[in-house]
Structure formats: structure tokens, C-alpha cells
Amino acid sequence: MGEHLTLEEKQTLLRLARQALETGVRGKPFPPLDEACLTPVLRAQGASFVTLTVHGDLRCCIGALEPYQSLVEDVREHAVAAALEDYRFPTVRESELAGIEIEVSRLTVPSPLEYGDAEDLLARLRPGLDGVILRDGFRRATFLPQVWEKIPDPAEFLANLCHKMGAAPDTWRRKHLVVLVYQVEEFHE
To answer: Which listed site, 57, 62, 109, 141, has its alpha carbon 20 to 30 Å from 86?
Structure first.
């Protein structure tokens, strides 16, 4: 991930995420960005997840696991995608905008977590620090590190992640899955 974001860079990303969210929900295009006003870190490629909450409860969340565009464009794109494209939730309505809080998670590049068996996997996980990606063939799912706050038990965490992936909750115990981990720099309004 390189250097941490400054407070000003975090505020810029949150402001632009809010602007993108509100224009996207209203069906309007993004206003143009003045790239010259952005720091090199914001212009560099970056991957992010944007989580929308209402009174602390998840409303929707979408992001990218690998960088493919500038961090600032990634945050703007995922703010709108979370509101309009998270299949788990109805699309955000304009009347909800004032009650929504935005959280941005800037991701490190995922790295493989080598493990021997199910017990070894449990021992290698770092609750509260690692975001986890499970892959089984074409299926894939991730939980951000913040999910550990709601599911602190590693076995339960993996079972829920298997379920999210569309697999049986005990798949991680019965089958050797591809496991990747990453960390995030999280900030919110």
C-alpha cells in the first residue's frame, strides 16, 4: 500500500465519495475531477471498498480486490456501485442519502496464505488485521478485516465466508481452498 493517507487525502476521498454517491443515486454523471489538485497517492492505482451504513448497520458494500485505476476513481466508482449494484440489498433511494454514512477501505495487494490443514489455517489467520479472500474454482468471496468485529471466532468467520461464496459452511474444513489475505486503511465520515 505504500505510505498511509494523510488526513487531508482521507477527507478528499470521503468528500468525492459523497459527491459520487449523491450524483449517482440521482442519476447524474460524475462531475469532472481536477487531477492537478490531487496528490500523487490519490492519482496512483489503488483498490478500495466503499461501505454504506445506516445507524452503524450495513446498508451495502462494493469494492475491488486488485488495483486497476486511480485510487480516487476507484472510490468514486465503488461509492455509486455500492448504492446501486450490491445485489444483496435494494438500491439506495434519494430519500436515504442524508442518513447514510460512508466508510472507505483502501486495500493492500492480496497475498497467498499458505497452510497445511484446517487447524493450521485457523492458527495462521490474524483476526482484526487480515481481510480474507476464499477461492474455490470460479467461486470467490471476501470479508474485510472489519468483519472480525462482528464475527470474532475464526472458524465461524470462515464458515460465513464459505456461505457468502455459495459453498457449504464447512467447505474450508473439508477442502483445501485458495486463501489470500490483505490489510486495509479504513476511515469514515
So the answer is: 109
| CA distances (Å), origin 18, targets 73, 79, 93, 99, 174 | 13, 8, 14, 12, 43
Residues 128, 17: Cα–Cα separation, whole Å: 25
Q: What are the pLDDT digits (tens) for 25-46?
A: 999 988 888 888 899 999 999 9
Q: Within 10 A of 117 (CB to CB), how many other CB atoms are there?
A: 10
* Alpha carbon distance 121, 104 (integer Å): 28
CATH architecture of 7-108: 2-Layer Sandwich (3.30)
- In whole angstroms, what is the distance from residue 104 CA to residue 6 CA? 14
**Is the overall model pTM greater than 0.85, yes or no?**
yes
pLDDT digits (tens, 9 = 90+) for 125-137: 999 999 999 999 9
CATH class of the 111-183 domain in this structure: alpha beta
Burial of 20 (0-12, 13-18, 19+ CB in 10 A): buried
